[in-house]
Specification:
Blueprint lengths: L2 E5 L4 E6 L5 E8 L5 H16 L8 E7 L2 E7 L3 E2 H12 L10 H23 L14 E3 L4 E3 L22
Length: 171
């Protein structure tokens, strides 16, 4: 284990390096700390991850269970869109929202947005459809080469999910 990336509703995510020096992210879910219906959500997430093959979605590598923990190994993404947006003002030497974007900044922003839309379209076209439950800059992960979207899955839409600032008005 190299470092702890963060914690969420179902567990903690670690940045790890394997014997071949490949860096990946491993999510550790401790089953004794979550409700039975949440355990089913975790299993559904893993089943969905196995089926997803898109350049726009963080790639599933492996999963395994040890005692009362489930481990989910995923592709490592070094940045999130949230971090990029924080650095954007420094990189482009301007106050965000106060000055218009230059052509280069506009192109980069449009390309990131296009790839997010490609990802969402891909997930919605799967059978069964995968609905992103919390699409926000923190969950849009970026690699050096391309953009990936981290997602949580659901079998059906339920109310009360998502982050208030980023949720669709009709939800």
């Amino acid at each position: 284990m190299l470092s702890t990336i963060g914690s969420g509703g179902f567990g903690t995510v670690y940045r790890v390096k394997d014997k071949s020096n490949t860096i990946s992210a491993v999510k550790r879910v401790i089953f004794e700390l979550i409700e039975d219906n949440d355990k089913q959500k975790v299993y559904r997430e893993v089943k969905s991850l196995v089926k997803v093959e898109s350049e726009y979605v963080v790639q599933y590598i492996n999963s395994w269970r040890e005692t009362d923990c489930l481990y989910i190994q995923m592709e490592w993404c070094s940045e999130s869109l949230s971090n990029i947006l924080k650095l954007k003002a420094l990189v482009f030497d301007r106050n965000l929202g106060e000055e218009p974007m230059d052509l280069y900044e506009y192109y980069i922003s449009c390309e990131i947005f296009r790839e997010i839309l490609e990802c969402v379209q891909y997930l919605h076209e799967l059978n069964p459809q995968i609905i992103h439950m919390d699409l926000k800059p923190d969950n849009i992960l970026i690699t050096i080469h391309d953009k990936r979207v981290h997602f949580r899955t659901a079998n059906k839409h339920t109310s009360g999910v998502g982050t208030q600032r980023y949720i669709a008005p009709e939800a």
